[in-house]
Amino acid sequence: MYNPISKPFHYTSTKLEVIDAIETWNLPYHLGNVLKYIIRAGKKPDTSEVTDLQKAAWYLERYTEKRRKELVDVFYHAEGVEKEVEQFTVRQGLVEMEKQEEKPDAELLLKR
Fold it and tell me: Would you say 28 and 62 are in contact if contact means Cβ atoms under 8 Å apart?
């Protein structure tokens, strides 16, 4: 049934409402808007299909850039942790070497 607030015509042109798909699939904000603009493309009065598809592309580009930055941050964080582990391992190796040098060599003691 038509309702200008919750059920305008361009919302109900398909069997599944876009909001239901977005919530069922737990889409993040940007991807929800991509889906919304693609499914409703050209169905809203006074809005061209091309405009709706451009909006979908804009949201997809923003989401892609956001995810790229997040993955780069994760990579640099992981790389930093890896370097810390490597430095720790090197330090531990040096400590172990120093401990071994402090211990008298049994063969040298026997030769004396």
Answer: no
